[in-house]
Design goal:
By secondary structure, the protein is α/β, with parallel strands linked by helices. The chain is 43% helix and 16% strand. It contains 7 helices and 6 strands, in the order αβααβααβββαβα. The strands form 2 sheets. The chain has a 4-stranded parallel sheet. The longest helix is centred in the last third of the chain and has 14 residues. The N and C termini lie far apart (34 Å).
């Protein structure tokens, strides 16, 4: 990815990496996870991080490391990475099923995470097929406008 990031930079573009849950749940041995390899190998001068909060929270819960404090796990992920975190992908998590949910309708304490680390952009999304992008955008916009952190 560093090669691609260098090419992007030459073209005047920023290059970001977007996480999913598997970076936190797979163990290569000795507690080493894909996330550890990525953050060690990605050049922080070329690659920034786009933390998907839902996937970080879910990865923490599924790995067992973030069961008691999924937001704390997510903040630890952000703070421990040498790369800058410039964007958040924001979708909520249904507390009963663990499925994706529109912002403000689930269990994630976004204000706590946003207070812990501020970013340049918030990318509202919901990957489930039973909601429309218009609904997700409207719900997410209303939630973020009212959220204080």
């Amino acid at each position: 990815m560093n090669v691609e990031a260098a090419a992007a930079r030459k073209a005047g573009l920023r290059y970001g990496y977007h996480n999913h849950a598997h970076e936190f749940t797979i163990d290569f041995g000795n507690g080493r996870r894909p996330w550890d390899v990525l953050t060690e190998e990605l050049d922080p001068r070329l690659v920034h991080l786009e933390i998907d909060i839902y996937w970080a929270v879910t990865g923490g819960i599924n790995s067992g490391e973030g069961v008691d404090d999924p937001e704390g796990f997510t903040l630890d992920v952000i703070r421990s990475a040498p790369q800058r975190v410039l964007q958040y992908h924001v979708k909520d998590r249904d507390p009963a099923t663990g499925d994706m949910a529109d912002l403000g309708t689930g269990m994630i304490d976004f204000a706590r995470i946003f207070r812990g680390h501020q970013v340049m952009e918030y990318i509202v999304e919901n990957d489930t097929p039973d909601v429309t992008p218009q609904q997700t955008a409207a719900v997410g916009y209303r939630y973020l406008r009212r959220l204080r952190f």
